[in-house]
What does this fold into?
Amino acid sequence: MVLTTIAEPRSRKRNAMERLEAAFADDLARVNALILERMQSPVGMIPDLAAHLVSAGGKRLRPLITLASADLAGYGGDAHIKLAAAVEFIHSATLLHDDIVDGSPLRRGKPAANRVWGNSASVLVGDFLFARAFNLMVESERLRVLDILANASSIIAEGEVRQLAAIANLDMSESEYMQIIEAKTAELFASAARVSAVIANLPQEQELALDRYGRELGLAFQLVDDALDYAGTAGALGKAVGDDFREGKLTMPVAKALQAGTAEEAAFWRRVFQKPSRDDDDLAQAMALITRHQAVPATLDQARMHSRNAREALHVFPASDTRTLLSDVCGFVVDRSF
Amino acid sequence: MVLTTIAEPRSRKRNAMERLEAAFADDLARVNALILERMQSPVGMIPDLAAHLVSAGGKRLRPLITLASADLAGYGGDAHIKLAAAVEFIHSATLLHDDIVDGSPLRRGKPAANRVWGNSASVLVGDFLFARAFNLMVESERLRVLDILANASSIIAEGEVRQLAAIANLDMSESEYMQIIEAKTAELFASAARVSAVIANLPQEQELALDRYGRELGLAFQLVDDALDYAGTAGALGKAVGDDFREGKLTMPVAKALQAGTAEEAAFWRRVFQKPSRDDDDLAQAMALITRHQAVPATLDQARMHSRNAREALHVFPASDTRTLLSDVCGFVVDRSF
It folds into this structure.
């Protein structure tokens, strides 16, 4: 097994997500069963569409954060299963609605649900999953959990609208962009971790530490996602390279290239993002500018900083296998190629 | 004031809604202020779009039901204000998402929000309002209230998807249609009334009576809405006559004409609803069939039956001005011309 041994350091790093899954396999199986149960409906289109998205292809990163956080918090009950399912439902509802906003043909390597069932079905099934998420939260019998996740949900929607508005005026600084992704991505990661502290009755310091862990991890995750869109390969990403660009979505590499570039370059970005669609030549030119300003490595550097912040947030907890796992996930998120 | 006296019986009936508004004017002003406060966001598109829909033109029928039910229940606190605002937010979120499903150019006599801001903004601002509704409910500090309204929200979405699916196969009985409108319309009316019983700690019999009142009133309301679409006038309705038909939406008059008609007529309905759009000639032919089978008066008769059921549900409460008002609203709903 020489090969395995040689490959060990790198494969260990790559497998932090799988180790997390393995460590919480029993809990995750319960979450998956609950997800399957609660997406049922006598209206067949609902489970069909939900299954397309929810039961296939998802990495379950957010619910795993809830499960691992509950373990880190020493929680001994069952509510974390329901909250993990609720978090995944909120995430799934957001994805269904995002498909309409983005207009991307692919999601998780499959045709986006709205391409198969239409925009109307995606809107309504998203609403259904969102409502079911709240039913699950109610069953946790903790009002603070509901408050945290309802608040997160409105912040997510706010972030998405802000991004929509930013596209129109192409006048976005890096710090504005950070506010957008903190809202649309990091808030749910933060809540996914924090709710476990609430059900475990942890003191405020530890509750806020878990919030910070999730938030910083979410920022790192989104920045890597942004960078990979200008650097990855279609197969591994489950979406096409340059998708964000084609959809006219301003992300961090663009914000960095814009900020570092000349007035002439700014005119290119403005012109190309104001067009109704962008072709391969536009993408080639965008890639050239992003490469010129080293916007991808700069975005990845920033992701690594947030990944380090996430690790540090865990220091208020005593050392444990679960703390190590959650810490290793921070490395996984920034080193993944998908 | 001879004229007023002569007109009294009819004008009293027509004005039940206005009398309800007047009786709860102070509470309604607080609800409106709260709605305005909670739809604010630093992201300007959100209050702009929300104002277009929420702060203009709404009859506030659902929140008024919550307010009057709280009074009928003898509730003495403040939570009914928050719940009335939450109910209106859920309703508004549903309308924003419906605009995408329906494709109707008008809503409450104004251009539908998605025609002004686009589908993406309507989806996301709907999500925002829905999340804010849950924040308001959390503030009521009653888990049962959250359970009732989360459940209602998933049932509403389910009803909408069922209607969407029914359009595709044009194979809908009257009883199936009743299930659809019980879900997509009556469930929120039922919850709007019921939550007031919950916060007032009413015994189960009275809680279920308020649920029944709202549910039957909602059914009557929707059936009248369906009938008016084939009988009303554009100005008064705030939407065009034949809108439901043009949008390919199966409603009760169609279900009745279909059920009473010949195989040849069924072929017409199938053909016309399977087309991507329907023109004036199609509408004329549909109107002829609906008239032949007296589907509009039959739909209104059915609405009156549910209106009577709603009145009867109130009998478990002692006589009072508020009970009379709620009872008179049942008459208003079926006698309105808009």
